[in-house]
Amino acid sequence: MPKPISTIPPRTMMEVFEYLPEGTLVQLIENILIMSPAPTTNHQRMLAKIYKVMAIFVDDHDLGEVWISPLDVYLDDENAFQPDIIFISKARQSIVKKKGIYGAQDLVIEILSPSTGKYDRRQKKDVYERCGVQEYWIIDPYEKSVQGFQLVNNKYKALAQTEGFIRSGLLQTEFHF
Hints:
Layout lengths: L12 H7 L6 E4 L2 E4 L5 H20 L3 E5 L4 E4 L2 E3 L3 E5 L11 E2 L4 E5 L5 H5 L1 H9 L3 E6 L4 E8 L2 E4 L3 E2 L1 E4 L4 E4 L1
Parallel strand pairs: 4-7, 8-9
Antiparallel strand pairs: 1-2, 3-6, 4-5, 6-8, 9-10, 10-11, 10-12, 13-14
């Protein structure tokens, strides 16, 4: 027997977001639904390389878990993102729930795409900062340039730009790609 359809319409954009089918490439950024196409092959190559080296390091040192998109991350009532790569420390595993991650991750990596890069550099960066993400990395998959930010006294401090690697203060290592 089919599930009955709710006759109560969603009242918030978060409720609209939650009604979308699983796998929908959409994020709720500052209470606005942002749709995006599937990532490019360059984007996915970069994602795979970084995830692989990071996951091995985190597993080998028993530091926590590394997750990849698509996975919903609920930061507050107006923001639900699908970051490319997420690290959650062992001590903070309680934010990992069946439906997604609820709260600020320890480290987030966004790989720029033509359709979403402006959000990664501005709105999402501001939300990550406001919500307490300790490290935020933005990567250009074509140039392999990396811009990192570290949360210091509740404000992001820009780190030296690099090329071809991430130097994580939080994990105290470098990830080359």
